[in-house]
Amino acid sequence: MRIGELARRAGVTTRTLRYYEARGLLPARRGDNGYRTYGEDDLRLLRQIRVLQDFGFGLEETRPFVECLRAGHPAGDACPASLAVYRRKLTELDALIGQLGSVRAQVAAHLAAAEAARYEAPEPRCQFGGTTP
Amino acid sequence: MRIGELARRAGVTTRTLRYYEARGLLPARRGDNGYRTYGEDDLRLLRQIRVLQDFGFGLEETRPFVECLRAGHPAGDACPASLAVYRRKLTELDALIGQLGSVRAQVAAHLAAAEAARYEAPEPRCQFGGTTP
DNA sequence: GCTTGCCTTGACGCCGACGTCAAGCCGTAC
DNA sequence: GTACGGCTTGACGTCGGCGTCAAGGCAAGC
């Protein structure tokens, strides 16, 4: 399988595959003509990468999963290093969600206060930026 | 007040102030020697920008607030355009928090499944990437 | 031989909010 | 005079994950 077919089957671009190879994440064998050659297992590795990417994992964070698969394990998360990434990611997600929730609350409070101020002192009102709500 | 003093009082760098000016967000008057000159009101504008930046607002999203203050209003969110930004941001935050929560649940499920698999078939275990948990 | 399509490498572009360096001017203290 | 700190503009670097040319090689059909 050459790069174009793998890209189509995985739903990525050839540029993406070359990029992964440049990062050492998905190296390819080469045919006599210099063309990259991939196998079915490369498609599985690629799918693993894509799933994690869709979760928001950075490319480097997918590496343990890929190496785990390449080591012959049926799942990319069968290795301790992968589980460690999962756990770290959960911690990061919790922190991020907490921060965003805090920001959301503060923005909502600012909005409510600003609306209340406009209600209590309705005129003269600022006309800048659109019609009054 | 020159750029260095304003930067110190606002807790930003001079580079940041020059950047804001280049974006047309915080223009400065100039003295005879070409030095930028700022007033106390510029400090207030700058503080408004920083609060919103800390909330994760993009620079362009702070513009309505700044122009509202510059129009003479006591608060940057006294204008409809600012309130619109608040509301849009709340929507974005809700969407983002929802997505992150979904991702968090999926990662947690993957982790639990992987741990269960290791428990049910404890050997031979993959040794790659560290000690077993 | 010529087109067509797929492949190769190399290199620059993008987004945002600046950081960092370079070369040189302004003003004050010594 | 000269040393120093603060100021000026200009321009390139950062981070991630690619997109988008450009110039050219390889294989197949007509």
UniProtKB/TrEMBL annotation, chains A, B:
<dbReference type="InterPro" id="IPR009061">
    <property type="entry name" value="DNA-bd_dom_put_sf"/>
</dbReference>
<dbReference type="Pfam" id="PF13411">
    <property type="entry name" value="MerR_1"/>
</dbReference>
<keyword id="KW-0238">DNA-binding</keyword>
<protein>
    <submittedName>
        <fullName>MerR family transcriptional regulator</fullName>
    </submittedName>
</protein>
<feature type="domain" description="HTH merR-type">
    <location>
        <begin position="1"/>
        <end position="68"/>
    </location>
</feature>
<keyword id="KW-0805">Transcription regulation</keyword>
<dbReference type="InterPro" id="IPR047057">
    <property type="entry name" value="MerR_fam"/>
</dbReference>
<keyword id="KW-0804">Transcription</keyword>
<dbReference type="InterPro" id="IPR000551">
    <property type="entry name" value="MerR-type_HTH_dom"/>
</dbReference>
